[in-house]
Design the sequence.
């Protein structure tokens, strides 16, 4: 029994926590009855084989217009206050931001962690390793998708964001919160 694949070879998709992947093959492997995607993460070396009917989250990459709209909306995306000193609770709260697979939730997480890091520095403390881990992962996923959507390198995404927000600045927020 074969399942029709909604994403053709060459399509860029977001696959679970792997981030942006290119579909490099679609087919039924020998000895299998299901159709599988062969995926190549844009920022990795592994190859992923995923059933077309997988329960792992799959969606198309943002379009350029959606990416630009997201960037323009960044000043209005609010950080959440995370005041618990309990590492497990903070970790669970941060992890929940990845579960939606929504780029705006990644922006919110990055802003939340920037807010928490700034509060720690104001108190004479160093930003936490937990926050650094989640911020880096959120930036990898967000910048990877924006890179694919905008057709620019992942390394230039923060500069693109700053430039776009500076261009459209109407006194409504800070670009640095997303970089």
Sequence:
């Amino acid at each position: 029994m074969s399942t029709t694949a909604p994403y053709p070879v060459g399509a860029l998709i977001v696959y679970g926590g792997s981030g942006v992947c290119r579909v490099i093959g679609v087919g039924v492997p020998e000895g299998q009855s299901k159709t599988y995607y062969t995926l190549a993460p844009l920022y990795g070396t592994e190859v992923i084989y995923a059933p077309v009917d997988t329960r792992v989250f799959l969606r198309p990459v943002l379009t350029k217009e959606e990416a630009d709209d997201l960037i323009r909306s960044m000043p209005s995306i609010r950080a959440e206050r995370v005041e618990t000193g309990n590492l497990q609770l903070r970790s669970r709260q941060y992890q929940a931001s990845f579960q939606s697979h929504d780029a705006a939730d990644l922006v919110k997480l990055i802003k939340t962690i920037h807010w928490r890091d700034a509060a720690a520095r104001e108190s004479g403390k160093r930003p936490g390793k937990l926050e650094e881990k989640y911020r880096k992962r959120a930036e990898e996923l967000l910048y990877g998708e924006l890179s694919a959507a905008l057709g620019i390198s992942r390394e230039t995404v923060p500069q693109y964001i700053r430039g776009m927000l500076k261009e459209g600045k109407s006194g409504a927020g800070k670009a640095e919160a997303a970089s």
Observations:
- The chain has two domains: 12-60, 64-178.
- Residues 12-60 form one domain.
